[in-house]
Amino acid sequence: MSVANVEVLRQAVPYIRRYKGTVFVLKVGGNVAQRPEVLEGFARDVTVLHQLGISVCVVHGGGPQATELSQRLGHEVKIVAGRRITDEDTLEVAKMVFGGKINLEVLSALRWAGTRAVGVSGVDGQIIRARRRPAREVRDEATGEAVVVDFGHVGDIEGVDVHLLRTLMDAAYVPVVASLGADEEGRIYNINADTVASAIAVALAARKLIVLSDVPGVLTDPARESSRISHLRTQRARELVADGTISKGMEPKVAACIAAVEGGVRRAHLIDGLAPDSLLQEVFTREGGGTLIASDAVIASYEAELATDES
Question: 45-81: b or e for each residue (b if 16 or more CB lie within 10 Å)?
């Protein structure tokens, strides 16, 4: 073993101790799930976390795959403020892609990596109780003007029951949750996967929510990866949304992280799920590789830790 590898292992030991016996919720974006080699790397990392005694719950989206199938079927795809408008045809696609294709592919990758996993959706075990989202005013990203949008069969979460998820994790399984929910009458809704992951993380009292997408975190300049912000207080994150620095698809991800932290999750992270070992780097190194969003107290403690290392 090289000196560098020894140092990495030495740095990881305190985090292994700290996180053993805790719960992590991992949200995997469709861009991660659609690349077999990337999905295999993610599955290997999840297996490491699981074998180190961390209970893991995976929530997945699948926007690119849903868009691809919709286009193949000749359906128009509409996305406003980073969220998909779900008409009858789009709902059928969401059920096929989220509850079927992607869920099975994530399960297959985890099985290949040696982790026992079980696929569910938010409809199973009444995990996600939802209602149809009413028409609401949103900001048009193209014009900056406010428009009223009917999102169709898109659901807003009214409640979360994690009994089934806890049962699976207590039995050493990794639940893989598709971002669908239902109301009391059994009507199924498409729900943003970032929102589902955040709500589940809060309900599970998770130590971490980690959102894996195709960008390295919050960037002040989308064209430059070097503009990544390594850590943000929740209030500062809100300010960056308000002034437009955080926009488009990143906005619901940051909103989900803020909601998770304010709901009791200690740390939320936005990382590049396409980069090799990015998940383990974020969990087991001080600097991480994405953007940490947390409370004032947690960020102050993190900055003090970094300052101690530098001294």
Answer: bbbbbbebebbbbbbbbbbbbbbbbbeeeebeeeeeb
The DSSP letter of residue 239 is H
CA–CA separation, 289 and 270 (whole Å) = 9
DSSP annotation of 289: S
Taking only the tens place, the pLDDT of each residue in 19-57 is 999 999 999 988 888 899 999 999 999 999 999 999 999
To 5 degrees, how large is the angle CA 178–CA 179–CA 180? Answer: 100
Tell me the one-letter amino acid at 181.
Answer: G
Which domains, from first to last, does the chain contain? Answer: 23-310 (3.40.1160.10)
> How is the beta sheet containing 208-213 ordered, strand by strand?
117-121, 174-178, 55-60, 23-28, 208-213, 267-272, 291-294, 231-233
H or E stretch including 128?
Answer: strand 128-132
